[in-house]
Amino acid sequence: MPVPPAGTALAGGTNGPRALRPLLDTVLDALTTGAEDRAGPLPPGGPEAVARSVRDACAPLLPEHGSGPHTALRTLVHTLAAGAADPADPHCAAHLHCPPLALATAADLAASALNPSMDSWDQAPAASALEALTCRELAALVHPTATAPDALVTTGGTESNQLALLLAREATHSDQGRSRTAAHHGNATAPLQIVCGANAHHSIHRAAWLLGLPGPITLPTPDGVLDPHALDAALHTLHSPLLITATAGSTDSGAIDPLPAIADLADRHGARLHIDASYGGPLLFSDTHRTALDGLARAHTVTLDLHKLGWQPVAAGLLTVPDPATLAPLAHRADYLNADDDTEAGLPDLLGRSLRTTRRPDILKIAVTLKALGRRGLGDLVDRTLDAARTLADLIEDHPHYELHSRPTLSTVLFRPIGADDTTLAGIRRTLLTDGHAVLGRTVTPTGLWLKATLLNPHTQSGDLTTLLKLVEGHTPR
Ligand SMILES: *Cc1c(COP(=O)(O)O)cnc(C)c1O
């Protein structure tokens, strides 16, 4: 056999690590020099400058003869790092875009090298066993009194919310099927009606659209959270089947809906309850903050995102259920993946654990993080992050030129320079972005536009926050 050309070594097997090591040296060096070149939370110059440097680094992107692995890795990794919005920089605080832990990132490398695919046992023997264990462990954290809670791994809150709506739709179909048979009358099946707050994530609306469900009834949330009285009144006017979707940590402000009161209303009106805890869910790790999630366990489905407060590289989503029967509608057969006789012979059937087929073992980095840090270690990161938000709120309250929207619930702080109108605020945010000095978000509320700092870096110091306020002040016209 001729010797294979350079750059075509494989990552697996006993020789894989030997091939990987020098490539990793190149990658790590390029990550370092890229971050040094950027010297801030994101590259200066705006979209055109960044696109130009990417174009220059790539050209030619598909050469007749390749440049070899080290040159390609060095050039492109350096360019990507130099042009990154880096959530590890304390001034990169616009979105629920977390700085991943080094340890989780290292685990993700192993996931890529081994490349298990989670759609059948014969592609992922150990990874599927690890996924089953880890999902049950995390589900038990969300639903501590359930007998056999379980969870599905997803690409994030969007996919989890879609699955939650699908499972609610299927559950109510089968309920209606049963009651029709019992009553011997044949009303057409009524579609599932979703009720949510204006604070609900946009993915709830898209999922309803995708699933062919009526548009969600969206109740105003002038205070940032669902009002139980308004919800009660709305539920009185609606007919089953109903799904209430509550939010534990809104994307715009981090507010948590009053979960116990909402769970009571769901019981009283015979509605199903989904709670989107994409952002707030990891407060369960914290002894200090977990009571903010009282009532979470009463939902039929819960969305959790560990690529937000959870410090995982994307993707790391979960959908937890107290009752594994909720997941039954996802059962699906494809002879080449889960033939009946294979399943009867004891091979685990994985196809019903996702709507995807080929699927990465995102569970490995999550399991490594849980084991390495423990519940207390993760809880401590949550506490530090929420403390940083409280510190920023204190600095703003004590500052003569700033106003604070409200005390933070999670790690989102809404603020603005006193007297700045919406156009000025939007301009400040864009200037900070294009100068590469800071990445801040924006939230529209009934009192106008606000700057949004979403703090997810547990190592942020109060000095970083003082500098952030100075940066904004420096860009505020007087
Ligand atoms: C981030 C977020 C989502 C979407 O999650 P992705 O991981 O981006 O798909 C859904 N709901 C809430 C409340 C979120 O904050």
Automatic annotation (TrEMBL):
Its cofactor is pyridoxal 5'-phosphate. Pfam families: Pyridoxal_deC (PF00282). Keywords: Decarboxylase, Lyase, Pyridoxal phosphate. The keyword Lyase applies. InterPro entries: PyrdxlP-dep_de-COase (IPR002129), PyrdxlP-dep_Trfase (IPR015424), PyrdxlP-dep_Trfase_major (IPR015421), PyrdxlP-dep_Trfase_small (IPR015422). PANTHER family: CYSTEINE SULFINIC ACID DECARBOXYLASE (PTHR45677:SF8), GLUTAMATE DECARBOXYLASE-RELATED (PTHR45677). Belongs to the group II decarboxylase family. This is Pyridoxal phosphate-dependent decarboxylase family protein.
